[in-house]
Amino acid sequence: MNIIIIDTACANLASVKYAIERLGYQPMITDDPDLILKADKLLLPGVGAASAAMEQLAQRHLIEVIKVCTQPTLGICLGMQLFAEHSQEGNVDTLGFIKETIAKIPDCGLPLPHMGWNQVYPKAGNHLFREIPDGSYFYFVHGYALPLCSATIAETKYGENFTAAVQKDNYYGVQFHPERSGLAGAKLLKNFLEM
Amino acid sequence: MLAKRIIPCLDVRNGQVVKGVQFRNHEIIGDIVPLAKRYAIEGADELVFYDITASSDGRVVDKTWVAKVAEVIDIPFCVAGGIKTIDDAAKILSYGADKISINSPALADPNLISRLADRFGVQCVVVGIDTWHDEKTNQYHVYQYTGDEKRTVATVWNTLDWVQEVQKHGAGEIVLNMMNQDGVKQGYDLTQLKSIRQICKVPLIASGGAGKMHHFLDAFKQVNVDGALAASVFHKQIINIAELKQYLANNGVAIRLC
């Protein structure tokens, strides 16, 4: 299987690559549009600010490439947030697959950013969470979040409930870091790769 | 519910894990990768690696072990020690670390925190604070260069003020190393932690002093810290992480049981 991790020059590319290698696959990190278009599975990792990430994608002429992809694509953390229409973080327009705005996690008197292992509750039936029990812990690190919306396939709670995972057509996204979420994370990545 | 984190800390010197008492007299504990792997399997929620020689020596330290850890570990980990520039941080993050932690260099240049936060996001910028309780004055003071006995100095900072300052600069998490307690296994300094918790709006990690399982429970129940960090009790297998987590869960702490 041809697995491509889209090179967004962000920090967690190596961790995502290692996590997929631990499952026995050989992913490639690249920003070459031809390779990206031909891939069987795509991953879009992201760490940092939305505006910086969009700038990186624009510089590499990848915005249109990602928009025309039809293979299963998994956005991770900021990568998932880029699937929304707009981000309050840096006030930037993003890829627009999901007609929602990424907003700052409201101050409910809890420490911010939302950092650590939190429980995720998937909706029944989505293949991404196959054989992953309700309430499994995944590792989150973020200050902005996607509110619950029609594309939400899993949610979590920190002060209030927000989106932990989304799906819109071939675009899947997770707010947490499956590459750093122990066995549950490995299972989720395996589910994605076996789609 | 967000789980409280149990964080083994591995002090690294010359590519090996070491541990001292009150930051002194380090003995070798073992190789980095096997120990990191063992902790991940036992249920650690996160790992912290402190390259304790780095800041004091002023030299560039070989960090390729970070990539080896990233390859085998499926939980988050943070690397501290000798990170003075954006480039230093970029290198460690590109090796696969999830967060970087700065301590002495932040005291030398508090704007470094802001620059790191702007470039990589606040979520991966941890500030470590070495704090000493002066019993005569009943004040908490921040110390610098604690990796080297000859260079360790008291700074002008009162700990509470420094905690406020680093948050202003964009620290995403604070690890409070209570030096009086380090390695002596008498429990975390709950009095100090309580006063810091009141002003700390980012995740707060207690460090220094854990000797018994109830010390962890006290820090979570009485102070509501986000995580508890310890070294000796895990290295010397005085406390097993899986047993500790079961004990905490039985006592009503939100814990990720593996």
Task: Walk me through the topology.
The complex is a heterodimer of chains A (195) and B (258).
Chain A: E1 3-6, H1 13-22, E2 28-30, H2 33-38, E3 41-46, H3 50-59, H4 63-68, E4 73-77, H5 78-81, E5 84-87, E6 92-93, E7 98-104, E8 114-122, E9 136-142, E10 144-145, E11 152-158, E12 160-168, E13 171-174, H6 182-193
Parallel strand pairs in A: 1-2, 1-3, 3-4, 4-13, 5-7
Antiparallel strand pairs in A: 5-6, 7-10, 8-9, 8-11, 11-12, 12-13
Chain B: E1 5-13, E2 16-21, E3 24-31, H1 32-42, E4 47-51, H2 54-57, H3 65-72, E5 77-80, H4 86-95, E6 99-102, H5 104-108, H6 111-120, E7 125-134, E8 139-144, E9 153-158, H7 159-168, E10 173-178, H8 190-199, E11 204-207, H9 213-223, E12 227-230, H10 232-235, H11 241-250
Parallel strand pairs in B: 1-4, 1-12, 4-5, 5-6, 6-7, 7-10, 10-11, 11-12
Antiparallel strand pairs in B: 1-2, 2-3, 7-8, 8-9
Short recap of the structure:
The complex is a heterodimer of chains A (195) and B (258). Chain A is α/β, with parallel strands linked by helices.
The DSSP helix count of chain A reads: 6
Rounded to an integer, what's the Rg of chain B over CA atoms? 17 Å
The overall pLDDT average of chain B reads 90
What top-tier CATH class of chain B fits best?
A: Alpha Beta
Subcellular location (chain B): Cytoplasm
Active site (chain B): 11, 130
InterPro entries (chain B): Aldolase_TIM (IPR013785), His_biosynth (IPR006062), HisF (IPR004651), IGPS_HisA/HisF (IPR050064), RibuloseP-bd_barrel (IPR011060)
Keywords (chain B): Amino-acid biosynthesis, Cytoplasm, Histidine biosynthesis, Lyase
